[in-house]
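U., I forgot to send this yesterday:
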Amino acid sequence: MGQARMRAKHTMGLLTGPAFDKGARAQKAGPLQAHLKQLGDGPARIVVGDSSRGGHRRRMRESARILVVDQDDQKRGALETTVEEGGYRLSSASGADEARATVEEAIPDAILLALTGADEAGFELLHWLSTDPRTADTPVIVVTSIDGEVDLTRAFEEGATDFVRRPIRSQELLARLGNHLRMRDAARALAREKQDAKVMLELTQALASSLDLREILFTVVRRIAEVVQVDRVSIVLAPEPDQGDVGYVVVASDNEKLSNLKIDLSKYPEIQQVLRTSEPLLIDDATTHPILDGVRGDASTRFRSMFLLPIVWQEQVLGVLFLRAATPGHEVADREMGFCRIVANATAIALRNARVMQSLRDHTQQVTFARFEAERRLRSLERYADLFRSSADGIGVVDPEAKLLFANPRAHDLLGYEEDTLSGKDMRTLVHPDDEELMQTLWDGFPEGHFPADVDLQFRRGDGATLIANVAFSSLLHGEGSVLFTFRDVTEARRMETELVQTKEFLESLIHASPDGIVAADLDGTIILFNDGAERIYGYSASEAIGKLNVRELYADGLARDVLAMLRSPQHGGPGRVESIRLDAIDNQGERIPIALSAALIFEGDQPVATFGIFTDLRDRLRVEERLAHAQHKLALSEKQALIAELAGTAAHELNQPLTSVMGYAELLKRKLDAASSEYNAADIIVRESERMADIVRKIGKITKYETKSYVGEQRILDLDKASESEAPGRAPKR
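Result:
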């Protein structure tokens, strides 16, 4: 037997035993036929199901059978009619005793039980149905009249599932029946799943507790046969690539001694199809199925129904789980189908483990040889040991599997390990989780000759701290895959770099957040910094200004030179500084912009290297100042007008008393003079003119808001008393 044949025998544990199938398609050697005669016929039991992956699928469904129990023939007939119209099969009983006999003969799927108040036999029937394990989950719907005196509480306590009242509404009754049947089916399915889980746990424990492949597989097929209720379950291994059509029956449920039976798969087209397609196959009747047409003459007549399920490991078909029963025309139920799939998947692991046993042994030999080679290489590195030990940098050597062959004292110190404790460790496990992906990328490049230098890697020290190291890799002993790496601690340097970067970013953010324009230029005038404020003032973008514009282009003619001269003189804030001077800048449209400038020279040591200026746009400030001046002018005018009004008020005040006297004396004269006399006319003129004058005083008082009072005739003159009372000492008149 060749090497591949030997591996196949090792895979199956070198198990030996009797034959695979009575009088069947295995090789027809005399001893094999003798083994076949050992297999006797047994009872044929199979629960039917489906092949869910593209295979043949057929389900035999019969309507549920309902038992109607009612002493009243007419009412029972109405119930029977409703049940039959619902598509259910029907059984009837006229009383409790007949109902019990009917149930003993064949358990119905549901019961409609008519109860009356005095029907004690009906309650006893209820109690019996709920306590008998065979009928405990059978729905019982109590039917009672609308005015009946049935004790529903007692009915439910005795096991009733539901109740309806007469007159019966057919649709409601059928809906209740269907609902309770579905709930019963769901409960039964849950119980079956629980039982399957129990069996799966048993098989899992068996698979985990034994290393004997034959014992494991026999336990598997025996339990499948019990759960699915078939006559034989066997496992057929697929042939090795160099074995052609030779397969092996590893184990069979009905013969504990059968194992490692070689068969010619060309005589088993059903097995070949499953191995080829990775799809389940269901054969209802082996005597008529077309796939067996070419081999039916050699086939056994014992097994009529067959179900084959592929055993797949990572898309590779390792074999076939073969279920057979003597009764034709049956299928495997959905539950059994799922159970078999789960078991087949678990079995695939056991078969895979058996197939890799030999390769594991080979691998062990390879590892042993590799270890020997590593030790040899380590001895060849001893001549470098003194050089490595005296190095101020950490130095290590790893083999092609990343195992540390050598680490100098400095490497132990940097990584926080005791002397000589790093040897044998996987270098990749020393790398911090944040850099594991980078380390793997570096490692993948070594076989291709990529040995990078100046790479920062984070390591986990032995004390849990993080070390940032700058690492350089190189090939050592070219052709054998060893890698030399040197590293030094740069943790503090990288921390300082990080802080400097953060400070730089903060300053840049601060500069760009400033509302003032900030511009820096080298000593030649080339702009090297141009913030957002400068962009707003000048209209240039930073990309248009930095490295392209000269700072002179930001000032009016000659002002750039003047500013530089001020920076070099001590008269504007000290040498190297200019404090807030006003001048005109030029924007990108050539328009003048009034600005306030503060500038300084930037030094490196004693040498100036750049200029720095802060430009404050004065346009808004000047506009505010202009508005303020205008407001002040308006205020001055208002004050002048107020002064004039005050003078007018004062004049009115001063005229008030003399005018009063004139008007009074003129009236006295008029009273004493003859109306026809010329003197009377003169006095009258004086009165009229005085009244006109009083009217003028009144108008002036109205303008200046002084109070007036009635005097002679209809005229009103300034009330000086009231006006004087409204003025506080030292205050202007109220306006």
